[in-house]
Amino acid sequence: MNTAATIVSIIAVLGALILATSSAQFRNLGMSRMLRLALIWGAIIIGLVLVVQLTGLSLEQ
User: Fold this and answer.
1) Contact yes or no for 50/44 (Cβ under 8 A)
2) Using one digit for the tens of pLDDT, what is the confidence trace for 9-52?
3) From the CB of residue 21, how many other CB atoms can be counted at a distance below 10 Å?
C-alpha cells in the first residue's frame, strides 16, 4: 500500500472513531468502560492489519 493510501486510511479510521464517540450514550459509560472498549477496538484493528500483512493480501493496480 502506498503512503497516500495509508494516510487516508488512518484519517478515515480516526474520523469514524470521533463520530462514534460523539454520541451521548458513549459519554455516559465511564472512563474505565470507555478505556476497555478502546482497547478492544484497538486489538481488532491491529489484528486485522496483521492478518492482511501476514497473508499477503493486496490490491493490484
Assistant:
1) no
2) 778 888 887 887 777 677 777 888 888 888 888 888 888 878 87
3) 13
**How far are the Cα atoms of 2, 14, 29, 49 from residue 37, in angstroms, in the given order?**
30, 15, 10, 18
The alpha-carbon radius of gyration of the chain (Å, integer) is 15
Residue located via cell numbers 455516559 = 28
Say whether 40 sits in a helix, a strand or coil: helix
pTM: 0.57
Please choose, from the candidates 6, 14, 5, the residue with its C-alpha nearest in 3D space to the C-alpha of residue 41.
14
C-alpha cell at 11: 484519517
The grid coordinates of residue 37 equal: 472498549
